[in-house]
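User: Assemble these into one structure.

Assistant: Restating your components, then the assembled model:
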Amino acid sequence: MPSMNRRTALATMAGALASAALPVRAQSKAAGPMKVGYVYVSPIGDAGWTYQHDIGRKQMEAALAGKVTTKYIESVPEGADAERVIRELAQSGHQMIFTTSFGYMNPTIKVAQSFPKVHFEHATGYKTAPNVGIYNARFYEGRYLAGIVAGRMTKTNVAGYVAAFPIPEVVMGINAFTRGMRSVNPKAEMKVVWISSWFDPGKERTAAETLISQGADVVTHHTDSTAVVQAAEAKGVYAVSYHSDMSKYGPKAQLTGVTHVWGEYYTKTVTAAVEGKWKPGSIWGGIKDHMIKLAPFNAAVPASVRDEVGKIEAAIGAGKFHPFTGPVKDNEGKERLASGKVIDDATLGKMDYYVEGVQGKLPASK
Amino acid sequence: MDTVAQLVILTLAAGTPLVFAALGELVTEKAGVLNLGVEGMMLVGAVVAFIVASTSGSPWLGVAAGMAAGAVVSMIFAVVALSLMANQVATGLALSLFGIGLSAFVGLDFVSVVIEGIKPLAIRGLSDLPVVGQLLFGHNPLVYLSFVLFAAVQAFLYRSRAGLVLRAVGESPQSAHAIGYPVIAIRYAAVFFGGACSGLAGAYLSVAYTPLWVEGMVAGRGWIALALVVFATWKPWRVLAGAYLFGGVTLAQFQAQASGSAIPAQYLSMLPYLATIVVLAVISRDTVTIRLNAPASLGKPFHPAG
């Protein structure tokens, strides 16, 4: 289980580690396949966060054919509705339930208390319980690699980032991308536009066009639709997709994409549950655990760049390189990490500054 | 100068769906009917336009189909609210919820489809002229259609006899009925027009502005259009100004962010809403004008027997 030793030491996850050591009650084996439930925050659609989870669910179901049946509920709003949906899944005999959005954290913990024999796994949160594990992916590793591609391909030395909300996870992605880009092209700068929405194709498109009109010739996004890649295609510039491979929407534009791969992890943890060996984990997996993968390269990306990215990818996978290795300076010139040091997960999880090379001021910073 | 042209083009592009939907709703409300189903009708228009555009290969056919679809669902509202005299607010809200669900269901098989949308004009010679070329001839064809719609609505309401009758129905349906006008039929027509315009607004989003279909892609623009009509005190030119102001400020704040502005993005994202409300509230501050322009019977059911 490679991801078990990736168990993170995020301060907020400290409680999780304590509880992970607790023994799990023996599972009363029901006859027939195990019922596994998934709760999705948005419609599955054809690309995006939920779409990737659903691919993972299908892979897991195929790998464990005959041993499990799965059910999913999509477009479940975060909040009170989520608790009702999760409770219904538990009541209808689902022995393992994946809740795949940050806002399901409290409802998941609450329902888990009433169903101590059901296994819960919550994506991207930080609260755990004797029957609630958490899992997330190190998206920033993929961002760094994509940044290298962008740094090599940009001609204007300006990249653009359409971002949703200034939370650490998004900021981490902007910073990792920028560091990757500047590791090969120190002249390159990053422009960021926050659209205050996870999903609004119209705004995403307008923001992308704004960035392009200000000289960005590689754009990427941390929002949920394909609009940014489409805007790049229409304007004849490059794009890096996020969540999913969106080359269909921008065959010429998409250089690569930072994609989430959950199937392997789902297969592993559900197998453990089926065998009665499941323990609540606190997983933060990356390239090493195959949770993050780059989408196939555009034909325009030269072999030398592919090799370069491949080498760094291998180094990250082997644990020999971390995208946030000092010196890390913020964009006001203050040193945030001394030379040679590697950022720890707790600090990473609270990132609230832009690194050198990002223009503007981070909305959350004072 | 090129950036100015870009800004104008992007502003008009962002404001156009609001212009379509708000002008349609304005005509509906001028007849005394409050249809809160704009968001739902836009989504239905968007999904039908996308489906027809992708299966027929013709985005223009898609636009026509989107208009028709918006008009058809608006008739559900008309039957319930006008003939059966149900509460208009409740019926309109129900129509919005229905439209959101229906469009998601109908569009299920089309989320992964890629289409060639309607592209901005590129007239050889004209669009390449320096500065004015892009400014005058570089817009999406549907943007020009929105100008035509504006002129038509303005002329219809204030320069035509039919428009006068429509406004009379909105002011005092009893009087209009007493002198022999078919109040219910006229209101049906106004709702139908509003539905078609909402459908057109949705079609613009799904086949021209961002050629794709995803559930909920209208993302609240229907509600903004509704608010625009009220803040613009039911005057077409103010609706137009409000829509472009909203689009323009949205864009300006993106520009500010991309240029590395030090103002926190949260304040900037508030700006479009704030600016639109403030400006429209200021130009509409005269209460007499509001009383003169607000349709007196707005939202009240009418029965010929009184």
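Chain A has two domains: 2-137+261-285, 139-260+324-348.
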